[in-house]
Design a protein that fits this description.
heterodimer, A: 7 helices, 4 strands, B: alpha/beta, four-stranded parallel β-sheet, 9 strands, about 45% helix, 2Fe-2S (chain A)
Chain lengths: ~160, ~425
């Protein structure tokens, strides 16, 4: 069956419409709805968004926006998306050792997903939590002041949720 | 000078983000005052009198910015820029999570000042928690009649929408943010026209930082004249400094403008980590030129003092580097950031930031030559001073060149392979 917004996303979409005087402004929030439904943004979903927003928004417009922003996953990611900040403040606090530890434990390199699709690890630019580094974002949640031991414990907790 | 709370007085209250707490400490009284006792012109004048300068990075006088909005029949838009993402900067997240009602109150007052009836709070997408908190606060404010149609029965309408960014540092630049809100790629726009004339949906628009809006209720409560007595003459008020790096107590500290940097680092933040010695300070976010330890010890935390050292107070992000810091590595990481975040519109930025990053990588891994250093300096001259639509390329240059100049020895040692190389 062709993709359409989930019930929750449809309710959110209807709430979004009156918030902007231009339909075009719906593109970014709609891409988040698509990602919430599917876990990533794909061609079918982007075409659906273009159709729902309607003329003059085309697939090209939606695709152009989706590819500009880093928070839209252009390919499937693991159940837990571990994003580790590697910029200056986190680096000064030892973020490299966190990335190495996580990657070695999961047996993947940054940018990769484990074979069982449980984890994706990415090194990202600043997460805006510089005083509490090293910082990782796992799905929607920030984990701060990390140490190799702490991240090890966090991954053990995630294992229980799988 | 020193620690002084104005915005963060109630930061330790667990429910500081709720309407009931905010009202219990006098919240929304300034909004009432502005809507009942003041004209738009009086609000603008009070903010002008306060001397408040934008807390996002550029430090432009807020009242003047509001005063540029033309009196037209077109809708006027008010936008809060909560897209903080410059390495080192993390102060707005505190205000967003702890004081969302202070932000809303400031925005309603600003709305009346510029005759706006629609506002947007643009928050960086990664701040999921902050977005949820602000959305809940907006809902609370609507239910209490503090937002929406006929606010407090006083005949003023103002609607507010929370909008999530999607991961692009450049959207912190106001015209890129406007493009993003319009559902476009976050490409900065050519100026003029400035947003005050043609901003969101080609209408007059004011974009202010989170901390800037949070100052507004306090200015209205205490009057601009009284507010101006805090801080220094040209940099009035307090400032939230986000301190990170090699200090014992990193964090967010609200201090009076003009506080000596030495006091911030050694008294307030407990000094250098592991009792090390200070090597350098990046005083206002990653794009502010680095200061040597000697320069830092003479600086005070206000716009003028930092500018006199040829750097910027910027976003108030203070990154401390001890003698253990590898400045070749940190400079490379900053160049990597700017190359990653270049929107790609302008050739000097799109090509330059990547080129600089690649050359620094070469130096970092011990394969650099003096020619590579010269090339970085040559490239940087073509990346700055108005060769691009927005200042991202300039920011990259400011993050790289002063460090390579002031700490030349560290880079030379890497060229001569006098230090251990990490790949």
């Amino acid at each position: 069956m062709a993709y359409q917004f989930s019930q929750d996303s449809e309710i959110r979409f209807q709430r979004l419409i009156p918030q902007f005087p231009s339909k075009r402004s719906l593109i970014l929030p709609c891409l988040f709805l698509l990602q919430a439904d599917k876990g990533f943004v794909d061609q079918e979903g982007m075409q659906y968004i273009a159709d729902r927003i309607g003329d003059p928004i085309s697939l090209a417009h939606v695709h152009g926006v989706a590819t500009f922003y880093t928070m839209y996953n252009k390919k499937p990611v693991g159940k837990f998306h571990i994003q580790i900040c590697g910029n200056i403040s986190c680096y000064l606090s030892g973020s490299d050792s966190i990335t190495e530890h996580v990657c070695s434990k999961l047996g993947i390199d940054p940018g990769e997903t484990t074979g069982d699709k449980k984890y994706t690890v990415d090194e990202v630019q600043c997460l805006g939590a510089c005083g509490f580094g090293p910082v990782a974002q796992i799905n929607d949640k920030y984990y701060e002041n990390l140490t190799p031991e702490k991240i090890e414990a966090i991954i053990s907790e995630l294992e229980k949720q799988v | 000078m020193g620690l002084k709370t104005l915005l963060t007085t109630h930061v330790s209250a667990a429910d500081s983000h709720t309407l009931s707490h905010y009202r219990s400490v006098g919240g929304y009284e300034s909004q009432k005052k502005a809507l009942t006792e003041m004209t738009a012109e009086q609000i603008v004048n009070d903010v002008k009198n306060s001397g408040l300068r934008g807390r996002g990075g550029a430090g432009f006088p807020t009242g003047n910015k509001w005063g540029f909005i033309p009196k037209t029949d077109k809708p006027k838009y008010l936008i809060c820029n909560g897209d903080e993402g410059e390495p080192g900067t993390f102060k707005d997240r505190l205000l967003i999570e702890k004081f969302p009602h202070m932000l809303i109150e400031g925005m309603v007052i600003a709305a009346k000042a510029i005759d706006s009836h629609q506002g947007y709070i643009y928050i960086r997408g990664e701040f999921h928690k902050g977005i949820r908190i602000v959305e809940a606060a907006v809902e609370e404010a609507y239910k209490a009649g503090l937002l929406g149609k006929n606010i407090l029965g006083l005949g003023y309408d103002f609607d507010l929408v929370v909008y999530s960014g999607a991961g692009a540092y450049i959207c912190g630049e106001e015209s890129a943010l406007i493009n993003s809100l319009e559902g476009r790629r976050g490409h900065p726009r050519l100026k003029p026209p400035f947003p005050a004339v043609s901003g969101l949906y080609a209408c007059p628009t004011v974009v202010n930082n989170v901390e800037t809006f949070c100052n507004v209720p306090h200015i209205i409560r205490m009057t601009g004249e009284e507010y101006k007595k805090i801080g220094t003459e040209k940099s009035p008020g307090t400032r939230l400094f986000a301190v990170s790096g090699h200090v014992k107590k990193p964090g967010i500290y609200e201090v009076e403008m003009g506080t000596p940097m030495k006091e911030l680092i050694y008294d307030i933040c407990g000094g250098i980590k592991n009792d090390g010695t200070l090597k350098a300070v990046i005083p206002g976010g990653s794009s502010s030129p680095i200061l040597t330890a000697e320069e830092a010890m003479t600086a005070t935390m206000d716009y003028e003092s930092i500018a006199s050292l040829k750097s910027m107070l910027g976003s108030g992000a203070v990154i401390i580097l001890s003698e253990s810091a590898d400045l070749v590595e940190t400079t490379y990481r900053l160049a990597e950031f700017y190359s990653h975040e270049s929107c790609g519109q302008c050739t000097p930025c799109r090509e330059g930031t990547h080129w600089v990053k690649d050359l620094l990588h070469k130096i970092k891994i011990g394969e650099g030559t003096e020619k590579d250093v010269e090339l970085i300096f040559s490239l940087s001259r073509n990346m700055e001073g108005g060769t691009t639509i927005c200042p991202l390329a300039d920011a990259c240059v400011m993050a790289v060149r002063p460090t390579m100049t002031k700490f030349k020895g560290e880079f030379s040692a890497r060229l001569k392979k006098e230090v251990s190389i990490s790949h």
